[in-house]
Amino acid sequence: FFLMIRRPPRSTQSRSSAASDVYKRQIYYLSKYPETVAKIMNEATSNGINFDNITMDELASLKYLDAFLKEVLRHSAPILSLLPRRAKTTHKLGDLTILKGTIVNVSFNVAGFNETFYDQPYEFRPERFLEENVQ
Protein backbone atom coordinates (compact mmCIF):
# COMPACT_ATOMS: atom_id res chain seq x y z
CA PHE A 1 0.00 0.00 0.00
CA PHE A 2 1.58 3.29 -0.98
CA LEU A 3 -0.41 6.02 0.72
CA MET A 4 1.13 7.80 3.66
CA ILE A 5 -1.28 9.28 6.15
CA ARG A 6 0.32 11.68 8.57
CA ARG A 7 -0.12 14.78 10.65
CA PRO A 8 0.76 18.18 9.19
CA PRO A 9 4.49 18.91 9.37
CA ARG A 10 5.73 21.10 12.19
CA SER A 11 8.43 22.53 10.01
CA THR A 12 9.33 22.27 6.36
CA GLN A 13 12.75 21.68 4.95
CA SER A 14 13.62 22.58 1.39
CA ARG A 15 15.67 20.29 -0.73
CA SER A 16 17.85 22.42 -2.95
CA SER A 17 20.20 19.61 -3.94
CA ALA A 18 17.72 17.24 -5.61
CA ALA A 19 19.50 17.45 -8.98
CA SER A 20 22.91 16.74 -7.49
CA ASP A 21 21.43 13.82 -5.54
CA VAL A 22 20.16 12.32 -8.80
CA TYR A 23 23.59 12.72 -10.43
CA LYS A 24 25.23 10.99 -7.48
CA ARG A 25 22.77 8.13 -7.69
CA GLN A 26 23.38 7.73 -11.42
CA ILE A 27 27.11 7.45 -10.79
CA TYR A 28 26.49 4.99 -7.96
CA TYR A 29 24.34 2.68 -10.11
CA LEU A 30 26.74 2.92 -13.06
CA SER A 31 29.63 1.91 -10.81
CA LYS A 32 27.62 -0.87 -9.13
CA TYR A 33 26.37 -2.35 -12.41
CA PRO A 34 29.16 -2.23 -15.03
CA GLU A 35 27.04 -4.37 -17.37
CA THR A 36 24.64 -1.41 -17.54
CA VAL A 37 27.47 0.87 -18.67
CA ALA A 38 28.37 -1.68 -21.35
CA LYS A 39 24.75 -1.78 -22.58
CA ILE A 40 24.52 2.02 -22.75
CA MET A 41 27.85 2.29 -24.59
CA ASN A 42 26.91 -0.56 -26.95
CA GLU A 43 23.60 1.12 -27.78
CA ALA A 44 25.36 4.40 -28.50
CA THR A 45 28.16 2.96 -30.62
CA SER A 46 25.80 0.69 -32.57
CA ASN A 47 23.84 3.84 -33.47
CA GLY A 48 27.02 5.67 -34.51
CA ILE A 49 26.82 8.17 -31.66
CA ASN A 50 29.99 9.99 -30.62
CA PHE A 51 29.74 11.14 -26.99
CA ASP A 52 32.26 13.93 -27.67
CA ASN A 53 29.77 15.66 -29.97
CA ILE A 54 26.32 14.28 -29.10
CA THR A 55 23.14 16.11 -30.08
CA MET A 56 19.91 16.25 -28.10
CA ASP A 57 18.17 14.15 -30.78
CA GLU A 58 20.87 11.49 -30.50
CA LEU A 59 20.64 11.55 -26.72
CA ALA A 60 16.85 11.15 -26.91
CA SER A 61 17.27 8.13 -29.20
CA LEU A 62 19.12 6.13 -26.52
CA LYS A 63 16.27 3.97 -25.20
CA TYR A 64 18.40 1.93 -22.80
CA LEU A 65 19.86 5.11 -21.30
CA ASP A 66 16.32 6.40 -20.81
CA ALA A 67 15.34 3.11 -19.14
CA PHE A 68 18.42 3.35 -16.90
CA LEU A 69 17.47 6.87 -15.78
CA LYS A 70 13.89 5.78 -15.02
CA GLU A 71 15.16 2.84 -12.97
CA VAL A 72 17.51 5.12 -11.00
CA LEU A 73 14.57 7.42 -10.21
CA ARG A 74 12.38 4.47 -9.24
CA HIS A 75 15.02 3.14 -6.86
CA SER A 76 15.89 6.47 -5.30
CA ALA A 77 13.37 9.19 -6.01
CA PRO A 78 14.79 12.65 -5.30
CA ILE A 79 11.38 13.73 -4.04
CA LEU A 80 9.91 11.31 -1.51
CA SER A 81 6.27 12.21 -1.99
CA LEU A 82 3.73 14.48 -3.62
CA LEU A 83 2.47 17.53 -1.83
CA PRO A 84 0.15 16.46 0.96
CA ARG A 85 -3.58 16.78 0.48
CA ARG A 86 -6.34 17.10 3.08
CA ALA A 87 -9.37 14.85 2.53
CA LYS A 88 -12.44 17.02 1.97
CA THR A 89 -14.80 14.16 2.77
CA THR A 90 -14.50 10.76 4.43
CA HIS A 91 -13.42 8.06 1.95
CA LYS A 92 -13.35 4.29 2.08
CA LEU A 93 -10.36 2.78 0.24
CA GLY A 94 -10.55 -0.99 0.55
CA ASP A 95 -10.40 -1.74 4.27
CA LEU A 96 -9.00 1.71 5.02
CA THR A 97 -11.19 4.62 6.05
CA ILE A 98 -9.72 8.06 5.39
CA LEU A 99 -11.56 10.53 7.59
CA LYS A 100 -12.44 14.03 6.49
CA GLY A 101 -9.57 16.37 7.38
CA THR A 102 -6.89 13.64 7.29
CA ILE A 103 -3.72 14.60 5.49
CA VAL A 104 -2.86 12.06 2.78
CA ASN A 105 0.37 11.78 0.84
CA VAL A 106 1.60 9.43 -1.91
CA SER A 107 5.07 8.02 -1.27
CA PHE A 108 7.16 7.53 -4.42
CA ASN A 109 9.60 5.24 -2.62
CA VAL A 110 6.90 2.93 -1.32
CA ALA A 111 5.13 2.87 -4.70
CA GLY A 112 8.43 2.21 -6.49
CA PHE A 113 8.97 -1.02 -4.55
CA ASN A 114 5.40 -2.26 -4.67
CA GLU A 115 5.14 -5.77 -6.18
CA THR A 116 1.71 -4.88 -7.55
CA PHE A 117 3.38 -2.50 -9.99
CA TYR A 118 6.90 -3.93 -10.42
CA ASP A 119 8.04 -7.51 -10.82
CA GLN A 120 11.02 -8.14 -8.52
CA PRO A 121 10.93 -4.51 -7.30
CA TYR A 122 14.17 -4.68 -5.27
CA GLU A 123 16.27 -5.68 -8.27
CA PHE A 124 17.90 -2.95 -10.36
CA ARG A 125 16.70 -3.79 -13.87
CA PRO A 126 16.51 -0.90 -16.37
CA GLU A 127 15.10 -3.37 -18.92
CA ARG A 128 11.74 -3.19 -17.16
CA PHE A 129 11.27 0.26 -18.76
CA LEU A 130 12.10 -0.76 -22.32
CA GLU A 131 9.11 -0.52 -24.63
CA GLU A 132 8.92 -4.27 -25.23
CA ASN A 133 8.73 -4.95 -21.45
CA VAL A 134 6.21 -2.29 -20.41
CA GLN A 135 2.79 -3.77 -19.65
Description:
With 135 residues, the protein is an alpha+beta fold. The protein is built from 5 helices and 5 strands, in the order E-H-H-H-H-E-E-E-E-H. It has helices at residues 18-32, 34-46, 56-60, 63-75, 108-112, and strands at residues 3-6, 85-86, 91-93, 96-98, 103-106. The chain has a 3-stranded antiparallel β-sheet with strand order 1-5-2. Strands 3-4 form a two-stranded antiparallel sheet. Helix 1 packs across helix 2 and helix 2 (34-46) packs antiparallel against helix 4 (63-75). It is elongated. Mean pLDDT is 84; it is low at 1-15.
Which helices and strands, and how do they pair?
Blueprint: E1 3-6, H1 18-32, H2 34-46, H3 56-60, H4 63-75, E2 85-86, E3 91-93, E4 96-98, E5 103-106, H5 108-112
Antiparallel strand pairs: 1-5, 2-5, 3-4
Helix pairs in contact: 1-2, 2-4
Short recap of the structure:
The protein has 135 residues and is an alpha+beta fold.
Task: Record keyword descriptors for this entry.
135 residues, alpha+beta, two-stranded antiparallel ribbon, 12% strand
Biggest sheet features: 3 strands, antiparallel
* String of helices and strands: EHHHHEEEEH
Helix content: 25-40%
Across the major sheet, the strand order is 1-5-2
Name the beta content range. 5-15%
Low-confidence stretches: 1-15
- What's the multimeric state? single chain
Radius of gyration: 19 Å
